[in-house]
Every structure is written in C-alpha cells, then in structure tokens.
Amino acid sequence: MKSSQGAKLIVASLLALLAALLGSHLASAKGEFSSVLIMDIDTGELRLVDDPQLASFIALSLFRDGTSDAPTIGRGYELTRLATAENRSSFAVDRLRYYPPGSNESGYIFYEGLINGASEYDGRWFSTTPAADAMMQGILSHPGPRPAPAFNPLAAIALPFAALLLGLVAGFLVSRRRAAGQNDQIRSAANAS
Hints:
The chain is an alpha+beta fold and 193 residues long.
C-alpha cells in the first residue's frame, strides 16, 4: 500500500514539474521579435537576421487594407519571426512571405499567420512600405549568417523525462494489477475454506 502511494506522489510531482517547465516557456511569448529566419523560397537558402529594424510587428508593413486577392509577384522569401524566451532559447512567433517590389510600385507581404494561434491578418496580402523594401533590399543583397543548429534545452530533457514518467506509470499499473490478483487469490482461498 505504501509503495502505491509513493508512486502516486512521484507521478504527481513529475507532472507538476513538467507543467512548470512548459508554462514558463509558453508564458514568455510576448514582446518584440529578437531575430528573423529568412528562407529564399526558390533556393531554400537560410539566413538568420538580428537587425533591430525588424524587431517591430509593423517593420515591413502597416498591415492595413489587407486583401485575399493575390497580387502579381516574383521571387519570394519566407520570414519566420522569432522571440527569445526567459531561458534565452528562441521560438517561432509568426510566419509571413515577403515579395520585393520588382515591377510593382511596392513589395508585398503574405501573412501566413501565428505559429500557435490565429489573427485577423492570417491569409491576407498587404503592401509593404518603401522603408521596408529598402531595408529588405539591403538585408537580402548581403550574405547573412546561416542559422546555427538549434539546441533546445527543454526538448533535450523532455524525451528522457517522458520516458521516466511512462515507466513510472507502467510500474504503478503493473503493481496495482498484481495486488488485485493477490487479493483475488486470497478471496478464492477464503471462500474455499
């Protein structure tokens, strides 16, 4: 009986720890962007940009008068905007596509949406500002640093932690089943006498 209560206490403690770790990671998804991961849609080339000019939500567009009708566009870039959590790890906030002006008078943004959620901007086209087009032209004309392979400490402990938790739950269930089997044997022996 005591081992059963101990197992329950351990499982409850581990679940509380997991909830605390996940809660602190998710609660930090506020504020400005810390960097932008830019992928050339044609070549797949990636670059990580830490330009402070890109830190604002409206750095590329004022996000007014969006339309669902696609304009004539050329070469595009997928931008994943990142923020930094309290534990200094980066996480994706939203994703959009940037299309430089080309033969148009301005470039365009197609706002794909928030990574974990939705907004009124999702799936809509917005024109960029002249300042944004000039900024992006400067960024895209210079080779930028390639992103380092990501190391997420939460992910590094999550799998072993989940395996430990699963093992504890399985052990608890097996011990409970054995105890129930022993109780059935005791009842059978008592009824036979």
